[in-house]
Amino acid sequence: MLVPLRNQGVAMSVETQRSIATMRMPGGLGGLLPALILIGLFFVVPVLALLLRSVTDPAPGLQNYAALLGDGTYARVFFNTFLVAAVVTIVTILVAFPVAWMLAIMPPALASIVFGIIILSMWTNLLTRTYAWMVLLQRTGVINRALMATGVIDQPLPLINNLTGVTIGMVYIMLPFMILPLVGTLRAIDPMTLRAAALCGASPFQAFRRILLPLSLPGVAAGGLMVFVMSLGYFVTPALLGGTANMMLAEMIAQMIQSLLNWGLGSAAAFILLVVTMALYALQLRLVGARRATGGV
Questions:
Q1: 24, 178, 195, 247: which has the highest count of C-beta atoms within 10 A?
Q2: Is residue 28 classed as helix, strand or coil in its secondary structure?
Q3: What percent of the chain shows pLDDT beyond 90?
Q4: Cα separation of 140 and 157, whole Å?
Q5: Residue range 96-115: average pLDDT?
Q6: Which residues form the signal peptide (predicted)?
Q7: Alpha helices in 106-162 (DSSP H)
Q8: Among 64, 60, 73, which Cα is nearest to 249's?
């Protein structure tokens, strides 16, 4: 039975209530249809086309995958890709954790300013930031000149066209993506937990290792996976700051398609990269689910 509703003396008629009660939201997949169409057109169809081309160009078969997985040159590119992604992820976590902790404990007004500066770096053009690092890291750049002027070094350091340059440039670009999830996780930790640990006699290192670090692992895992996956497919920064000895998979794919016009091999390499990325994401979901099921943080 419908009871007339009143709001500040204004009565709603029974007919109006009945019309509202009979309204129904789209059921089944009707409401999801636009999103499903969008995903199908811009994700599923391109992936299927990529897979189809990888097994049909230049001839039907798995020869493209056999060439990628059986050739030592391609294997080295795969190794370089995962090595760079792992190094960048580890360094990014080490740099981002203190920054995120600082943002979590500093006064809100000051934290907003620092946070705005970090976000502002994401709005700057990627190519511009990479070229800026090229100027800073070259043999006659600001960094080498400053180190030589202070007497720290006698000869310029090789900071570009190698793994060092790629790591520096990519860590700088990836930092906001690591800081954002970490700040949210660290702010959710009750400060009284650390104070209780200190009152119980725990040293700062023990409190960090046994309380702060375990509680922050969800943010570390989320940010680390994001950085690692993005690093796997990065192209501009490794191409400009790295050398031929540190070629990554994205560079090789671009070279195969643009220079060699080998669409079959390039498609196979891109599909392998996609499969690895999806596997890593599924692994993270499984680990997080298992941790929650066992009552972990």
A1: 178
A2: coil
A3: 13
A4: 10
A5: 90
A6: none
A7: 108-123, 126-137, 142-149
A8: 73
Whole-angstrom distance, CA of residue 107 vs CA of residue 118: 16
Q: How confident is the model at residue 168 (pLDDT cuts 50, 70, 90)?
A: very high
Task: Give the pLDDT score at 1.
Answer: 46
pLDDT at 253 over 90: no
Please state the rounded mean pLDDT for residues 37-66. 86
How far is 233 from 231, CA to CA, in rounded Å? 5
Give per-residue burial for 33-55: e unless 16+ CB within 10 Å, then b: eeeeeeeeeeeeeeeeebbebbb
Question: Contact, 178 vs 92, CB < 8 A?
Answer: yes
Cis peptide before 238 (omega within 30 of 0): no
**110 vs 273: CA distance, rounded Å:** 41
- Cα 13 to Cα 287: distance, rounded to the nearest angstrom: 54
**Cα R_g (the chain), whole angstroms:** 26
Confidence of residue 30 (pLDDT cuts 50, 70, 90): low
Q: Which of 250, 297, 246 is nearest to 276 (CA)?
A: 250
CATH code for the domain defined by 72-293: 1.10.3720.10
Mean pLDDT of 103-123: 87
**Distance separating alpha carbons of residues 121 and 20, to the nearest angstrom:** 48
Determine how many CB atoms are found less than 10 A away from the CB of residue 272.
Answer: 19
C-alpha angle 277/243/246, rounded to 5°? 40
- 172 class by beta-carbon count within 10 Å (0-12 exposed, 13-18 middle, 19+ buried): middle
pLDDT band at 288 (very low <50, low <70, confident <90, very high): low
